[in-house]
Amino acid sequence: AESKLTVGVGLRDEATEKLTGLHGKLDSFGETFKKIGIGAAIGGGAIAAGLSLATKSAMEEEKGIEKLRQALKNVGQDYETQKGEIEGLIAVQQAKTTFGDEAQREALSALLGTTGDYEKSLPLLAQSMDLAAAKGMDLVAASDVIGRVSMGNTTILSRYGLQLEEGATGTEALTALTQ
Question: Which residues, at least 6 apart from 94, have a Cβ–Cβ distance to it below 8 Å?
């Protein structure tokens, strides 16, 4: 009976030791799963924040397109008809400059409002970017200046330290700016 008791106690002690070891491993797994859960929650939050920013950016872009659409309509043009030309030019300029597509659309809208002419405004966008970069100006402000100069208001250039011969035409002023 004593040997059975010794064997039984030994088995019980061995089983207790194994279960204690298993419990420690389960605790370790639990901590690992907690860390994974926290990491997943943080990752999910980052994804949600990224989606929120992307949605906001898309909404801002749509507002800019709508503003341009209206500016084009005001000068007798249609955005859908001119979209390929406009967006192509914007993409090329965006690759060559630091001006994003939204800023370019806004500047083109301003040029259209000033000149009232789609064919005249499109090439003035590049000159607006040149002026903005050279003078450290906001692109929309530069497009306003370029639009006014193209319409014959050359005196506005003196505000920016650019002097022309008296009586210079808008075309002459734009040529001088380009040079």
Answer: 100, 101, 104
